[in-house]
Specification:
This protein is of the alpha/beta class and about 260 residues long. The chain has ten helices and nine strands. The strands form two sheets. The protein has a seven-stranded mixed β-sheet, sandwiched between helices. Strands 2-3 form a two-stranded antiparallel ribbon. α1 packs parallel to α5, α4 packs across α5 and α8 runs parallel beside α9. Monomer.
């Protein structure tokens, strides 16, 4: 069983980048009256407490969502601000939504959602807050492969693995190519960490070569602490919704000032 626990990292600078883009994409997709399907391969627990022992131990949210709110990175009318306010209104001021609860904020009656989480404890926690979705305690890649193309056919697939399995970097380009062929109208979004050793570079290059019209958004930031390997965040989005490129440019300018 893989050991990664996002509770230690929730609300960090990578989350702000990823979730700002996700919320913006979902806001645009749900602005149209047509139903959609939301699929997530590695959902985590869905809801995080920034006052928890895990979050306080690393303090990564202080440099992430706490700084973003204090410095006005997310205007009141930003889709992520809207989702965060709704979640904190329900769960308290220290709550931080993972991507499942961000999606839940935008999904409407008639939309469909599928969330995969293999880790037993994370899956159990997810089941407490994700009654809007069908939950799958299985490998997320297998779940998505079985569902795609989904009904409704409009929709978004978020791929957000922990990358503890190093082979993921090698297999993801081929896996996404197959998914894109099966679901040519779907928005397929991949998040990946940018580490000091640049191990993502070959994967990102292969994806860009296979999908030249996709959106590539990468931001860099100082490591959370001495010796911490993550120095940036990447999002690769096939069939990006209208306006997502402008949000990516806005975020790039903000992160460039760190």
């Amino acid at each position: 069983m893989l050991s990664y626990q996002h509770a230690y990292h929730a609300g960090n600078l990578a989350d702000v980048h990823k979730h700002a883009l996700l919320a913006t994409a979902l806001s645009h997709l749900t602005a149209k009256p047509k139903p959609l399907t939301y699929i997530e391969t590695h959902a985590g627990r869905g809801l995080y407490d920034l006052g928890s022992e895990e979050a306080q131990r690393t303090q990564e949210a202080e440099a992430g969502i706490t700084r973003a709110l204090a410095q006005g990175w997310l205007p009141a009318d930003h889709p992520l601000s809207d989702a965060l306010s709704a979640v904190r209104g329900r769960f308290g001021p220290q709550a931080y939504p993972g991507s499942p609860l961000i999606a839940s904020h935008f999904l409407r009656p008639g939309d469909s959602a599928h969330l995969a989480e293999l880790h037993p404890a994370e899956h159990a926690a997810l089941s407490e807050v994700a009654d809007f979705a069908r939950l799958h305690q299985q490998d997320g890649f297998a779940m998505a492969n079985a569902l795609i193309p989904p009904l409704p056919r409009r929709g978004l697939l978020l791929i957000d693995p922990s990358y503890e399995v190093k082979a993921d970097y090698n297999r993801i380009p081929g896996w996404i190519a197959r998914m894109a062929r099966k679901w040519n109208v779907g928005v397929i979004a991949l998040w990946y960490p940018i580490l000091a050793d640049e191990r993502h570079r070959a994967m990102a290059g292969a994806l860009a070569a296979d999908h030249p019209q996709a959106l590539l958004s990468e931001v860099r930031f100082p490591p959370a602490r001495a010796g911490h390997g993550m120095v940036g965040s990447g999002m690769f989005v096939i069939n990006p919704p209208y306006g997502l490129d402008a949000e990516a440019e806005r975020l790039a300018a903000l992160y460039a000032g760190l």
